[in-house]
């Protein structure tokens, strides 16, 4: 399956390789990218031969979160991040998923990628929970998944500061995700995928369901709290100005 924004291939038996490539929107959550991902993962779910999914971006971009238009709509109350049926896509996939974050992952894009079962990151790329940069509190389950994957102290720092962290710096801070040279991210992810593809499909699904049950149980309350915080933080007049002046910088 291939379209302008998402490309699905099967490079080896049991492995689905998904490439996000919305070049016009720099892999923000454009309508085309969201629809492409939803369609692609539906196809993967219907394919009984897939044992593991590897997701990556293009060039310097993995996934960069909401579009400027979406953020303005959040501010205006026209939509909520929960209206984008995507933040749980990797979590809810029945087979193990690997985020090959070869490029920058920002805001909701970082949270989205972190819901994968395994992470591979690039020394040179930037990773940022940049929500607070625009004056509003984090969403997309970021307040749950970042401390879960990176540790409470570092995850909290990333959420509060909205700073950019190179993958190499995160490795020095002790994250457990694999951090390699950018050119090695996708090959490393595929090596991990081959290992999983040698396992029993039934057992992979059972173990994934077991390992994610706590996340699936705890996440909904965090989503509710994030939405409640958004109702307050997005109401600040400064937020619209920040979105209009700082987006993409």
Descriptive labels:
249 residues, alpha/beta, 2-enoyl-CoA Hydratase, Chain A, domain 1, 6-stranded mixed beta sheet, 4-stranded mixed beta sheet, 10 helices
SSE layout and pairing:
Elements lengths: L5 E7 L2 E6 L10 H15 L6 E5 L4 E3 L4 H9 L12 H4 L4 E5 L2 E3 L1 H7 L3 E5 L3 E3 L13 H9 L1 H10 L3 E2 H6 L5 E3 L4 H13 L3 H33 L3 H10 L3
Parallel strand pairs: 2-3, 3-5, 4-6, 5-7, 6-8, 7-10
Antiparallel strand pairs: 1-2, 8-9
Helix pairs in contact: 2-10, 4-5, 5-6
Protein model, in words:
- The protein has 249 residues and is α/β, with parallel strands linked by helices.
- It has one domain: 2-enoyl-CoA Hydratase, Chain A, domain 1 (Alpha-Beta Complex).
- 47% of the residues lie in helices and 17% in strands.
- It is built from ten helices and ten strands.
- It has helices at residues 31-45, 68-76, 89-92, 108-114, 142-150, 152-161, 167-172, 185-197, 201-233, 237-246; strands spanning 6-12, 15-20, 52-56, 61-63, 97-101, 104-106, 118-122, 126-128, 165-166, 178-180.
- The strands form two sheets. The chain has a six-stranded mixed beta sheet with strand order 1-2-3-5-7-10, with helices on both faces.
- The chain starts with 5 loop residues before the first strand and ends with a helix.
- The relative contact order is 0.15.
- The mean pLDDT is 95.
């Amino acid at each position: 399956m291939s379209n302008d924004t998402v490309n699905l291939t099967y490079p080896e038996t049991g492995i689905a390789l998904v490439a996000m490539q919305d070049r016009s929107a720099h892999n923000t959550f454009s309508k085309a990218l969201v629809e492409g991902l939803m369609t692609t993962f539906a196809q993967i779910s219907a394919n009984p031969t897939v044992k593991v999914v590897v997701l990556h971006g293009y060039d310097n971009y993995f996934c960069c979160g909401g579009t400027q238009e979406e953020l303005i709509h959040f501010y205006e109350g026209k939509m909520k991040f929960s209206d984008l049926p995507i933040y749980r896509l990797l979590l809810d996939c029945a087979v193990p998923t690997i985020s090959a974050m070869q490029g920058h992952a920002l805001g909701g894009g970082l949270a989205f990628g972190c819901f994968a079962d395994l992470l591979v990151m690039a020394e040179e790329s930037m990773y940022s929970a940049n929500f607070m940069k625009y004056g509003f509190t984090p969403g997309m389950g970021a307040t749950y998944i970042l401390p879960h994957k990176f540790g409470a102290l570092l995850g909290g720092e990333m959420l509060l500061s909205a700073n950019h962290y190179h993958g190499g710096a995160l490795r020095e801070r002790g994250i457990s995700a694999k951090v390699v040279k950018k050119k090695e991210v996708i090959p490393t992810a595929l090596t991990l995928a081959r290992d999983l593809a040698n396992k029993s499909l039934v057992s992979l699904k059972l173990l994934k369901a077991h390992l994610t049950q706590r996340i699936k149980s705890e996440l909904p309350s965090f989503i509710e709290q994030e939405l409640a915080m958004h109702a307050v933080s997005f109401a600040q007049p400064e937020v619209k100005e920040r979105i209009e002046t700082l987006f993409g910088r």
